[in-house]
Design brief:
mainly alpha; two-stranded antiparallel sheet; 58% helix; 6% strand
């Protein structure tokens, strides 16, 4: 098993923006706003790991 396979096995995928909102305990409109400013993912394929990394980067940004 290579590193990519291991990474994919531990990366939770969410299917909808509503699931993303529920996970982060925010309103679905907040997730829509995140998508409009570059949150990674597509409908039926939101990588929790990628979103967490994206949020961490955004929080370092003064405009967040």
């Amino acid at each position: 098993m290579n590193d990519t396979t291991k990474q994919n096995e531990t990366d939770l995928r969410l299917r909808t923006q509503a699931e993303v909102a529920a996970f982060f305990n925010v309103h679905r409109r907040t997730v829509c706003d995140w998508v409009s400013i570059g949150m990674p993912g597509k409908p039926k394929n939101y990588s929790l790991r990628a979103i967490c990394q994206w949020i961490a980067i955004q929080r370092r940004n003064v405009n967040w």
